[in-house]
Amino acid sequence: MSKNKPNLNTVYVPERLKEEICNISNCSLTTVVAPMGYGKTTLVNWYLGECSKKDNSLVIRINIYSENLAIFWKSAQDAFSFAGLTFLSEYACPTDAISGGLVTDAICNTLSGKRPVYVFIDDFHLLTDETASTFLCAFARRIPDNMHLVIAGRDSFMHSSDVISLGNKLYQIDTEQLRLTFDEIVQYTHKCGIEMTPEELQQLFYVSEGWYSAVYLNLNTFSRQGHLPSSDSDIYTMFTEAMIDSLPDDQREFLAVMGLADEFNLPMASFITEISDVRNILNLFTKHNAFVKKLADGHTYRFHHMMKECAEKTFSTLDREKRAKYINRYGAWYEAHNQYIHAMIAYRYDDNYSKILQVIEKDAGVLLSYIKPKNFLDSLENCPEKVLKAHPAALLVLMRCMFNWHNIPKMLELKELLHESIKEHIEISEEEKGNLLGESDLVTSFLMYNDISAMSRLHQSASHQMTRPAISISNTAGWTFGSPSVLMMFYRQSGDLEKELKEMDECMPHYYKVTDNHGWGAEAVMRAEASFAQGKLSDTRIELEQAYAQLKVFPQENILLCCDFLCQRLSLIADTVIKVSLEERYKELVDNHNSGFINIWSSISAYFYALSGEVEKIPAIFAAHKTETMNVLAPGKPMVDMIENQVYLAQKDYAKVLGKSPIILGMCDALHYQLVKLHVIIQSAAAYHMLDKHDQSIQLLKEAFEIAAPDSLIIPFVECYSYIKDILSDDTFSQEYGSLVAKINKLGKNRDSSTTVMSLHELTSRENEIASLMAKRLTNCEIAERLFLSEGSVKQYSNQIYYKLHIEGDTRTKRKRLLEMLAGK
To answer: What is the per-residue DSSP string for 117-141?
Structure first.
């Protein structure tokens, strides 16, 4: 029997675990994985508290409450802000390698130093999206020595490859280490002020199996009733009886209701429960209940997950009217505080579809994009048609979401409902009817993507009806779906280039009017790109300058990058002033924290360096061919894949080009991407030629000329000139396409010369000196005598020169090619 007043809120950490947990400070990543109730959170919090006392460590605690990435990211931003670090609020949730790298760079640059930093992420098992675990493992590999990441959860989340790559940077704690021994249970019982007989202690050890929570709950029952619970009690029954059912009715209902919240503060608890003295209730719980905690910020509370699960079961026993009241108050609280995902989840619990649609209107589809489409569509299926029609603005947002989710039948179904709603609701003003119908046309225009004429008709209709900017499109969002080129998006039909340029000029002013200048300057860039594709270099320079000037009126970063793409390509063929270097543009993009635009920059850089032969400068995501990790929307993917093909060519991996090309061509045919198709066909011809498959190469070049000739497109050939120049001399091409071939040869030689000059700049002064003597046809022996070197050293320098200039073959062939390059310079 207990003779002293027990104190069950005592924190007990065995000496054995104190020694083991110290390894957190020696590793980049520590994982604590065990089932619920094994004291994971208690153990880590105890150690981090000790670190804070000892060396003034910075501790950042992030709690996870759902599988939703957006909610997790908001929790992370809030946790960093509480620690006085607000910079994360400038970054969107990392969803691919580029955005993850941005966030990692920001955290490492900000927190690197001498002060120890601990980031503790709790209940990680709830976040099932593998994007998060991939990001955190990559993050752990890069963090500085003063930083330590601790992740606790019920399930292991690391792949074996991650474990191997982290090596001794990783420390793992599992169930067996957390399980209390018999002696430790004896010490814990004594620390709690509870006296038990040896037989009772043995029984406690037997029934609990060292499970921390089971020990706690058994002791709780023992302290109140004088005996241990029956051996057939399961942990949840034991928990409910000890921690909930034993409470007065008002306190039990409070726990049942607030157990639905992930976290809450006093104003929220007061609003939800309509109880005025919630502070006293919570003070009582935090004093006598180890499963109710006040967080480090001093005003936020959370329940242990075991408490939450049992509280939710208790909540389900309340009558339906009472449950609905509480749930809708949750929704109202979250909605008022712009926590729209939480609000939608709450309203969905009570099938309050009118409120859900009200939240969707406010969110305008921003956070909705982070919800799994299937989950949302399942709930939408149950929404009565009458309720949907009562929210026409929400229908517009949902139409755009359905387009993004590639659910076109549902999009058209919602459009029909919208139009019926407008007819039925006579109270809607004529102006608002025009806005709704106009924006419906605008959203519908995306179904006509790549058909400028069809899109233009809908844009003009929207422009004539609308008096306000669209609510479903943000003018700060990307415009090209991740493509670095406007022309590649909209060149649809061979022979129709001038017609498409004219249609673009007519279309875009109407689009700008209803989207607050989203994509401003697109038609100007497209016209400059068209001139470039035809080899009209003077016109290209003029039109590119006009496009850059236009962007000073209404800056659009996406279109600016398209200008950069054209400018970089032009610089390889003609003297061109680069407005902003690739390095400078990258720094600007990093400062603006937009990973989508950095993906476009990576595409631009990869293509430029693949063309210039500077393979070592190609961004890693392209050089290592990990473009599948880039977050690029479907219409932008063919361009990214075409650029990756060019990288394969530059890396001399010709078989990969031929393996990938049919897939890209299939996408091009589906999207009517005639210019991208032309590039890929020429790349394939180049690859076949480099593999001595000349017949296949000639056949593909014939196909390429058939596409290119009607609009006199020559630059796609020029950009692959070094691979196809020999085969262009074939009579097949000179007879039928003589004038085009002549232009290609002229610009191709200019490009090769320009690329050679760039490559020669990579040589050291000694290598340049030796290359100059080789150009004078001196032998290795003569060069060695002239420069006081050994003949072996000259051979080594020569091989290095050939390597840097990407010259291959036998000794005679390499020397001949070098002389040609130097003569060209």
So the answer is: EEEEEE-GGG---HHHHHHHHHHHH
